[in-house]
Every structure is written in structure tokens, then in C-alpha cells.
Hints:
Two copies of one chain form a homodimer. By secondary structure, the first copy, chain A, is of the alpha+beta class.
Amino acid sequence: xxxxxxxxxxxxxxxxxxxxxxxxxxxxxxxxxxxxxxxxxxxxxxxxxxxxxxxxxxxxxxxxxxxxxxxxxxxxxxxxxxxxxxxxxxxxxxxxxxxxxxxxxxxxxxxxxxxxxxxxxxxxxxxxxxxxxxxxxxxxxxxxxxxxxxxxxxxxxxxxxxxxxxxxxxxxxxxxxxxxxxxxxxxxxxxxxxxxxxxxxxxxxxxxxxxxxxxxxxxxxxxxxxxxxxxxxxxxxxxxxxxxxxxxxxxxxxxxxxxxxxxxxxxxxxxxxxxxxxxxxxxxxxxxxxxxxxxxxxxxxxxxxxxxxxxxxxxxxxxxxxxxxxxxxxxxxxxxxxxxxxxxxxxxxxxxxxxxxxxxxxxxxxxxxxxxxxxxxxxxxxxxxxxxxxxxxxxxxxxxxxxxxxxxxxxxxxxxxxxx
Amino acid sequence: xxxxxxxxxxxxxxxxxxxxxxxxxxxxxxxxxxxxxxxxxxxxxxxxxxxxxxxxxxxxxxxxxxxxxxxxxxxxxxxxxxxxxxxxxxxxxxxxxxxxxxxxxxxxxxxxxxxxxxxxxxxxxxxxxxxxxxxxxxxxxxxxxxxxxxxxxxxxxxxxxxxxxxxxxxxxxxxxxxxxxxxxxxxxxxxxxxxxxxxxxxxxxxxxxxxxxxxxxxxxxxxxxxxxxxxxxxxxxxxxxxxxxxxxxxxxxxxxxxxxxxxxxxxxxxxxxxxxxxxxxxxxxxxxxxxxxxxxxxxxxxxxxxxxxxxxxxxxxxxxxxxxxxxxxxxxxxxxxxxxxxxxxxxxxxxxxxxxxxxxxxxxxxxxxxxxxxxxxxxxxxxxxxxxxxxxxxxxxxxxxxxxxxxxxxxxxxxxxxxx
Lengths: 420, 420
């Protein structure tokens, strides 16, 4: 178990290892083969055996709902995702919001255990296990005014600065409440989405919704780094839970200005359209120059493997830097941004062909940090000004959400905010 | 091997068995663990071993491009799908269409083997195996006029009759050329889609595109019947390749009016929106009454298991039929439709929330038959008039395509049409 070190070590474990190793439940926060409760959907007996064992494992993999942090931050990328924002209904305030969070938490706990939610459960997830379902809840800045909780609004929710290249659609940005759903099965994810929409009842309505995906479990024997729709290896530079200071960078420490956020994190969500038709016109060499990494294996152009540090000072035969001054890998390197650290955990999206005839596809960029002014903002400021990649992407929507810590036994998510 | 009997027996094999059984390649038409060619993406060594073996199998599963029938008809449902239609460019005729089908076939063969397509391969599928990718090509009625091949247009491509409940969008219906893509990994499917769009070059442009999904491999230990977004078990009534007359119902026999269609099939494609908000207002009992089957296991309301024949004559204590006169299971039963037989192989779709605030979700219905007038049409005529389910669905788009037989060695798909 040298690749896990604490109770949120799943990030370091390749999906392949994770799924191949049934015994690591305690260390990874992932419960595999646990019998579902009475009335549960899962039809798997214990840890499984015979020819369906490894496959049943995909379905049976369960992420606990309760813990120091909410699920959906440190778990491996899932194959299917939904992110959506809700606005509270006119007239709904703190009381209705508290009741909603209580309902949503109860539903999320059952969904993540692979159990039906109430008599009206639609049954879409039936026959499957939890499939690593995670449900994550957050609050947008507007939530606090709507609920009379302005004094408890963290300064970290101050609006993100405007970036010069932004082309944001306000209708698909921000929102009072944010929900992130991830699962390794599309029907399980859809079922969770529909269930939470129904549980919203008259208290809140969907403001925007986006669907995304990552690689399927078992599609590759490689580690969990994925590829984005430009074909680049993605996630290489992510901090690891074993890195010094990881917790301090990603999670809100006890003793902060807003005690209810202890153990929580801030999510920046950006719908980043990729201009794939333009991108595909570049040669492989040009694409690698824009990124500063090799496409095949993600290694920096200065050599080594995916995990080798880029040598930003290295010069080529012509005396110019091997990794160009405007290469994405240089601009986004932590050492170029005062050590700014965020945990990126994206989904790709593909909504068909846009009105312009080009693919409406790209990255549902989601990053996590204890303070967006120290994580996302300094990096994006630099990318906005000088990133060669910016000719090939377009930020179309943006959200910033306070994601409270995980619920303790008997608590619902956000209870420390809403009932303190 | 008692669950396979011929060279297209994969349909009968549960996905679980299929993935758990590495040795059945010859009988199933699925090549597992085959080393990819030089330059191929797949990094798996042989049939795999150790903790990643079963998982590598998901990635490494390969469907042959060549054979008596095109791929994507008899293979198990894949987790991700794209269906799209192209129209030939103005001025493009038979010559350009032949060159396009040659390019597309060459690309599809490489994609399905998990190999990069040319120097400009975007690399999105890299690191994964073929993931059971299938690419299937068809021709719409308009193709034959555009290419001067009207005498070779099969009568089976005559327009489908109008159904009273249809609300078809012509912009998302029909088209000169049809492409169906399925794979067990979203990036592999997306890569195939983009590659084929690029290979279309100036010869054809996308007319419409739809994205769909089914259950992920390993999400359930159950057989390959899936659930649709209404939560119903789907696919129970499908004919099996071992059924008497299966080939005659599904594939065009030799000696027909259009020899180039020998071994081919006709695909009816319908975008069926589900009015899920209305559906979810019904009680479980009401939903089961509409369908005539139990939701939990798909068994008919007259008893038994999923595969038990419905007893359409059985009366309840009140003297009325247990399976109602307008129940979907009754109306669609082959014995109620002169033995009409089609092979349904759908994807679910979910394109977010529509302008009406309701989920834009439902079924990408795809069915296969040797003659749509003997397969789809008689069943849909009855459903259109008397199906209780029709209050909860809306046919929004429709296409009918002639899908030629699989290419022999050295051939491209459609060569017998375009070069005869």
C-alpha cells in the first residue's frame, strides 16, 4: 500500500489498481463488494467470485457519503458526470434551503449506497451497483443573500476577476446551489440526476446542467491520467494527497473565518469549449509546441516521462527555450505562479455540433482549492494573458461554489451553515 | 459454448459472460487480447494476466470489421454511441461517394482495430484498446438519386408511412448517408466520430448527430438486457440468432432484387423523446399497467420471469385481461403483428433540459430487419393507434437506411453498390 498514505489516498491509485484490488477499502475510502442494505439494488454476493468478479466490482464499487470531505473531490475520475446549478424558488429562504439540503443528503446517501430512494424511485439504476457514484453539493455566492446568511458568506466566494478572453454566458454560469454527480455507469448517473431534480420539489429549479464523461473503467491498463478531447494527457500536474501541504492547499483548515467550511473546498467550474477544427489543423509538432509536452505520453518536451519536471530553462540548438515562452505547460507550472496549487478533476463534454457547424465539445473544467485566489485565479490570470493554447479554447461559462466538508453521522450537507 | 451457435452468436451471450470468457473469440466474432498491429494504440500483452486482466479485456475487446454482416448489428449493446447522418456535398456524385466510402471503410477498419488513422490522428483514443468499437454505414433513399443509382434503390427504402402521433423534425431525420458508432469508452467513440467527420472532407457534411449510451461493462452481473430511462427492462422480446428464421427476418437473403444488399439489413432509427416528468407521476402499478410487465424484473404481469411468454388471454378477478388491451407488451407482441420481427438495438439519450424545462431524454431507437414493411411498420402501426405508452413518448425524428452486408477482404462497404 505504498501508494496510499491516508484516508483520502484514492487519488494516487490508478483506476486499474483500484478496481483490481478489492481489499483496499479502508485506505481508499472505497467500499467494494459490500452487501447493499435490505431492499438495495445490488445483487452481488459479497466480494464476488467466478467470471463476473472483476466486472461486478465496477458496479459494486461504493464511495462513502460521510467523511471529513464530501465525495467527488478525491475519488478517481468517473466515466460519466453531470454538473448542474439550481436557483432557489422565489420565496424560498433559509428554512426551505435547510429542508432541501436534508432531503438531498438523504437521497444522496441512498443513491451512493445503490439503494432505491423512496416509493417513487424510477428504477433506472436497478440491477447495477453504486458504480462509484458520488454526489457533491456546493453553495454559490447568491445563496447567502437569498437565505439571509450574508454574514456567513466566505470572502473566497467573491466574484472571480474578469479574464480578458472570457466569453461567459450568464445563464450557464453561477447559481445558488451546485450539484456534481459522477458514476461509472451512465444510467446510474442519470438516475441520481433525476432523483435530485425531483427531490428539489418546489424549493429550487435547475438553472443550468452540463453532461460530461471520462474514460471507462477497464478501457486502458494505464494509470488514471486521462486524455482530453484535444488528445493530450490530462491531469499530470495534479498535486497528490501525499504531497507536503496537500490538505492545506485543497481543503479549508479548522480555525478559519467561516467555521462551517472546515474540511470544505472551493470548486471553480468552467465550461471550456475546444475549437477542435482549428486545433486539428495544427501538425503534431505544432500541437506539442503549444502545450510544451509530447502528445504520445505527456512527457515534457525537455525529455523524460509524464511525471518528469519540465526543464523550463533548457534551450534548443537555436538558442530558444525548448518549452516555448507561451507554452501551456510553462504558463501553468506552479513555479511560475507562486506555487499556486489546485486539484483539477474535469469531465470532457460533447453536445453535438453547434450552430456554427463546429463541435460543441471541450472540457468541463472543475478545480478544487482551499482559496480560489491562491489556486485558480493566479494561474488563470497568467493563462489569460500569455497561453498559446488560448487560441484554441473559449471559456463559455463559469461558476464558483463553496463546498462544505463531508457530513458527520446524522448530519446533512451544509447543516453547520444552515443551523449554526 | 451452448450459448453460441454460429458466426454471429454474440447477441446471446451476456456481456458479463462475454467479458469473462476470453477464449470464445472465434464463435463470437469478438477478438479479445489480440495484439494490435505495429503502431497500434493497445499496450496490452496478449490475453492479459494479473490484476488488470479483466479490465484490459474491456479495452482490448475488438470486433472484426469484415464479415458477412457489418459490425454493430449483432454485437452486445455498447456503453457509448453516436448516430449521425451526412448529406453529400453539392456537386458530389457517385465517384465522390465511392471515394468517401473507401476512405471511411479504411478508417473504420483501423479504428476498430485500435490503430491510429493516418498522420493526423488526434490521439484521443490513445492508451485505450478498441473497446468493442463498431462502425456501421448505411444509405438513405436520397443517396440513390444523388449518385445516379436510382435503379439500384431497394423498394425497402420507400418512405415509411406517416404515423398519426409522429412529430418529426425533418432536419434531424433521414439523410444521404448514415453512420452508427458504438464503443465501451466515450473517448474511443468520440475519436471515431471526429475521425469519420474529418475523413468526410469536402464530400459530405453532417446533417444531424445524436449521442447515446447504455449500461457500462461490469456495472451489473445481469445479462445484457438493459433498462431504458423509464426504468423498464428493455430488449426482452428481441429475437435470438438461434431462433428459427432469425437470419431471414434480419438479413437480406441472396437472390433478392438488389444483389448488392445480400447480407445487409435495413435500419429504422427513431429519436423517441420520453415525457419523463409525466411518466414519473404515475405510480409503480400504473406504470406496470401501461407496459404490461413488472418493472423489477421485466416479467409479464401474467407471471413468470423476464423470458416467460405473456399470457395475453389471462383474465384477472374482475374479468378484465391482466395485460390490458392497450398495454405496450400486448400491442408489440409478435403474435399480434403477424409474426413481425425486428432486432432492437437502441441507445438511451439525454441532452439536458429542453426549452420546455423538461428533460430532453429518451431512446435512440434503432431496429434491424430484412424488410421494414415486415418488421418495424406493422408493429409501429399498431403502437401508433393503441399503445398506452404513446401518452408518454414522442417520436421526434426518423430515418430509414439500407445497410449493406459486411465487406469482404479488400472491399470497402458499399462497393457492390457503387462499383457494380
